[in-house]
Amino acid sequence: xxxxxxxxxxxxxxxxxxxxxxxxxxxxxxxxxxxxxxxxxxxxxxxxxxxxxxxxxxxxxxx
Length: 63
Hints:
Elements: H1 12-17, E1 18-20, E2 27-29, H2 33-61
Antiparallel strand pairs: 1-2
């Protein structure tokens, strides 16, 4: 299975990882939205795939 995630807004990296403020007087921490989502998916994916495999086997092998 292959998943491609794209965010084409120019500021996506700054939201994800953080950035210096406009006046360069401080730092805004990143939100790590993509990073956290990937981690969550990696935790949940085995159960999701198992369920999909079971449904496939029931449909095609009559189990």
